[in-house]
């Protein structure tokens, strides 16, 4: 279980989060909603261990999740609002490292988001939506329990959102957790919501 207790965080000199409390059980989902600048991305980065809270704690099964960042990093996948795709590598090459690190199957990862036919194409040739699907394909090759997603469906067409919904459902069925910041509806049943700002 992932928990936040009385978490506060600054962005620069501005306090963007204060007294944030929530828990996400195995198989659970938390949607972070609110206006731009309300702290959604900051909270995701904090949950990923990329930032330290100014106050409060992030817990994993009751223990300080950020005490051992290497262990915490191994139990999560973070997909930010930027795709982090290397333009000079092919789609398959971009996904290969994630597949090796995550213990997943490269071909299955490409197929999960309908990228197999683009596997040998340099990423610089992909459309914005195809690059986003490639970024999300990292999830398909990961065994991490926690997925942290920042605007995951940005740039996706309806068919891609549906494929992504299937990926989310399979992850949750295995006991995986999802925390996602979004302005758009996500294909997630029974998602809890945390309104920020």
Task: Give the helix proportion (percent range).
Answer: 25-40%
Strand order of the largest sheet: 6-7-8-3-9
Strands, total number: 9
Distance between the termini: 25 Å
Topology, please?
Layout: E1 2-11, E2 14-24, E3 29-33, H1 40-47, E4 55-60, E5 63-64, H2 69-74, E6 76-79, H3 91-102, H4 106-112, H5 128-140, E7 146-150, H6 158-173, E8 177-181, E9 192-195
Parallel strand pairs: 3-8, 3-9, 6-7, 7-8
Antiparallel strand pairs: 1-2, 1-4, 4-5
Helix pairs in contact: 3-4, 3-5, 4-5
Task: Briefly characterize the structure.
The chain is of the alpha/beta class and 197 residues long. It has helices at 40-47, 69-74, 91-102, 106-112, 128-140, 158-173; strands spanning 2-11, 14-24, 29-33, 55-60, 63-64, 76-79, 146-150, 177-181, 192-195.
Report on the structure:
The protein has 197 residues and is an alpha/beta fold. The chain has one domain (25-38, 69-195): Rossmann fold, CATH 3.40.50.300. It is 31% helix and 26% strand. The chain has helices spanning 40-47, 69-74, 91-102, 106-112, 128-140, 158-173; strands at residues 2-11, 14-24, 29-33, 55-60, 63-64, 76-79, 146-150, 177-181, 192-195. Strands 6-7-8-3-9 form a 5-stranded parallel sheet, with helices on both faces. Strands 2-1-4-5 form a 4-stranded antiparallel sheet, with helices on one face. The model has no long low-confidence stretch (mean pLDDT 94).
């Amino acid at each position: 279980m992932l928990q936040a207790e009385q978490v506060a965080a600054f962005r620069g000199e501005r306090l963007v989060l204060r007294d944030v409390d929530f828990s996400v059980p195995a198989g659970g989902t938390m949607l972070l909603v609110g206006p731009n600048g309300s702290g959604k991305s900051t909270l995701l980065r904090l949950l990923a261990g990329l930032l330290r809270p100014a106050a409060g704690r992030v817990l994993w099964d009751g223990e300080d999740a950020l005490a051992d960042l290497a262990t915490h990093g191994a139990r999560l996948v973070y997909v930010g609002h930027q795709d982090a795709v290397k333009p000079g590598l092919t789609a398959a090459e971009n996904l290969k490292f994630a597949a090796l690190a995550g213990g997943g199957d490269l071909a299955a990862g490409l197929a999960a988001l309908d990228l197999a036919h683009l596997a040998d194409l340099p990423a610089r040739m992909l459309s914005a939506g195809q690059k986003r699907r490639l970024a999300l394909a990292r999830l398909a090759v990961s065994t991490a329990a926690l997925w942290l997603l920042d605007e995951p469906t940005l740039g996706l067409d309806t068919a891609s959102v549906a494929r992504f919904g299937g990926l989310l459902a399979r992850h949750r069925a295995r006991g995986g957790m999802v925390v996602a910041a979004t302005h758009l509806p996500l294909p997630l049943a029974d998602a809890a919501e945390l309104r920020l700002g």
